[in-house]
Amino acid sequence: MKIGVLTSSRADYGIYLPLLHKMKNDSFFEIEIVAFGTHLSRLHGYTVTDIEKDKYNCIHQISSLISNDDEQSIASSYGLTVLKFADFWKMHQYDLVLCLGDRFEMSAAVQAGIPFEVKFAHLHGGETTLGAIDNIYRHQITLASFLHFTATETFSDKVRCLTNSDNNIFTVGSLSLSDIMSFTPVEKQAFYEKFIIPNEEFALVTFHPETISSNDNIQYAQEMKNALATISEKIFVVITMPNADTQGSIYREEIQKLKTEKPEKILLIENFGKINYFSAMHYSKILIGNTSSGILEAASFGKYVINVGDRQKGRAQSNNIIDCKFEESGIVLAFDKALNLEKYDGDNIYFRDHAANNIINIIKEFL
């Protein structure tokens, strides 16, 4: 069976990995990776090199991002991605194409496939993020897809509502957690030395723009910077850099200013990669930001998460999440509260056993 895998960012590729590793070792599947989006961006770490290290037989590369991140540039990148994939789908046919999540580039690639009747299998559909325009892109992908692999039954219900159908919808849990029970972090000393982290507790931080509230992002980025400046006086701060969302550069600029002002307290990482990111989560004291990994994955590492603002609003949460407004005082107050808590020992609502194996078995049954 010939399977295409659409991957537009470091984030979705990391989620795919448990499934891709198993598919590579299963003679039933012939895998072709289609890398685009920020994978081909030097600003975002040119992460297509990480894909190449995994030695797939075929990796297509489609470059379509405009370097600016204002609204017009994002819309232009969307249109250019559609045009590039119109040519791609004309030249390449697959039994099934995997797509994941809610990025605008992913939506554009999928929309281009509709006239070609491409069979898409969508992972992580049915979720809600009211503070991000990605919410719309995610639902667009759902409507264009043939198979649906969701993280919770609530999300499966949402997909049923969107598609007006009960067909081909499967609740498998979060794919990124598929092998979490057997995950072994990088040895601590080696990890700390590789990334030049002081031998002390640290907070793991990731912030992205609120693309629904684009007019507020300048203020939000400043509130983030001020809060992290205060927090860095109490704990070392490791920041993973924003992705290619609308106005992501605003956050990058404030983060760079913070690093300049507090060089001994702040570490900036463009791209950890999945194993190193999970290791960072494992060794961290606490997570701060507005990224989906805090919602989906942190509970499985026993970590509390300061979830800031509305970007993830509407997404189901485990009991390790502490929500706060996008303002300096609220972020610092939530941090102080979480710092005094013991390790989180509750459930992760996104975890189900053998997600990757279940997806493989369902694909084989259907196709």
Secondary structure tally, helices: 13
Strand content: 15-25%
pLDDT below 50 for ≥5 consecutive residues: which ranges? Answer: none
Largest sheet: 7 strands, parallel
Keywords: Glycosidase, Hydrolase
Organism: Flavobacterium piscisymbiosum
Protein name: UDP-N-acetylglucosamine 2-epimerase
GO molecular function, one term: hydrolase activity, acting on glycosyl bonds
What is this entry, summarized?
It contains 13 helices and 13 strands.
Describe this structure in words.
With 367 residues, this protein is α/β, with parallel strands linked by helices. The protein folds into two domains: 2-173 and 352-366, Glycogen Phosphorylase B (Rossmann fold, 3-Layer(aba) Sandwich), CATH 3.40.50; 182-339, Rossmann fold (3-Layer(aba) Sandwich). Helix content is 40%, strand content 16%. It contains 13 helices and 13 strands. The strands form two sheets. A seven-stranded parallel beta sheet has the order 3-2-1-4-5-6-7, sandwiched between helices. Strands 10-9-8-11-12-13 form a six-stranded parallel beta sheet, sandwiched between helices. β11, α11 and β12 form a beta-alpha-beta unit. α3 runs parallel beside α4 (104-113), α4 packs parallel to α5 (134-143) and α8 (217-231) runs parallel beside α9 (248-261). The longest helix is centred in the first third of the chain and has 21 residues, at 71-91.
